[in-house]
């Protein structure tokens, strides 16, 4: 008589994680540490590109509009830089002209969820709904259905969230350079944004910026100009994903 023994399936952890890392100094790559590095690699997520090449990826989180997105887009157009804009449902429905301009000018429209919730508190079904409703809203404006980059709201996630995103076909993207730029009532001047952008530059850096910031809008032109002078080139997340799919050993 044969006795079968089925081992229980281990549940995927939903312990809440707040994205964080050791910031770059002297152009050395930022580092999230072994635990986070291993976890996000397991699910194909990333927070920087090839740390052997002086490439830069600009990303912006857009929850609402504060009057500076057009200026940011003007600067990107001037420098022929393609960025990624992670948008909420509110931003899409409130600013369809900006969404269309972003898409028409070749920028990536990323998914930042519809209501900007803590995804670790949501069921798999609700996570799917949060992301799909953004996709539908973007499609209504742009006719495009390639909105498959995800940035968890506030950088809050868990292994379960990464797993659900992967199952839904999303590429989760974090960041390796950021600073407090979203507080619209305490902007500190363009030099504050410029200095933070410059001092955190490193090969493969993914910047997280916010277009609600007056400082960012006023600093971006000079920052891009000076980063190019330092030998950096600007690429899009599509370029980075293509490189990762080629299994470059340095990524």
TrEMBL record:
It comes from the Bacteria. CDD domains: CE4_BsPdaA_like. GO terms for biological process: carbohydrate metabolic process. Pfam families: Polysacc_deac_1. PROSITE patterns: NODB. GO terms for molecular function: hydrolase activity, acting on carbon-nitrogen (but not peptide) bonds. InterPro entries: Glyco_hydro/deAcase_b/a-brl, NODB_dom, Polysacc_deacetylase_ArnD, Spore_PdaA. Residues 54-235 form the NodB homology domain. GO terms for cellular component: membrane. This is Polysaccharide deacetylase.
């Amino acid at each position: 008589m044969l006795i079968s023994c089925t081992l229980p399936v281990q549940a995927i952890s939903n312990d809440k994680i707040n994205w964080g890392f050791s910031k770059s100094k002297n152009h050395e790559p930022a580092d999230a540490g072994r635990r986070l590095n291993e976890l996000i690699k397991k699910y194909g997520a990333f927070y920087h590109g090839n740390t052997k090449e002086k490439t830069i990826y600009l990303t912006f989180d857009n929850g609402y509009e504060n009057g500076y997105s057009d200026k940011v887009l003007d600067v990107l157009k001037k420098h022929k830089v393609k960025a990624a804009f992670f948008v909420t449902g509110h931003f899409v429905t409130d600013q369809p002209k900006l969404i269309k301009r972003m898409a028409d000018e070749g920028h990536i429209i990323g998914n930042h969820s519809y209501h900007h919730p803590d995804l670790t508190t949501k069921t798999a079904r609700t996570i799917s709904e949060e992301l799909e409703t953004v996709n539908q809203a973007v499609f209504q404006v742009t006719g495009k259905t390639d909105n498959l980059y995800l940035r968890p709201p506030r950088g809050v996630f868990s292994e379960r969230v990464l797993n659900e995103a992967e199952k839904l076909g999303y590429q989760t993207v974090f960041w390796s350079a950021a600073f407090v730029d979203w507080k619209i009532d305490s902007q500190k001047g363009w030099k504050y944004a410029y200095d933070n952008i410059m001092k955190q530059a490193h090969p493969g850096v993914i910047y997280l910026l916010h277009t609600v910031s007056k400082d960012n809008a006023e600093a971006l032109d000079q920052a891009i100009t000076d980063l190019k002078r330092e030998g950096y080139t600007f690429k899009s997340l599509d370029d980075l994903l293509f490189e990762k799919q080629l299994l470059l050993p340095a990524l």
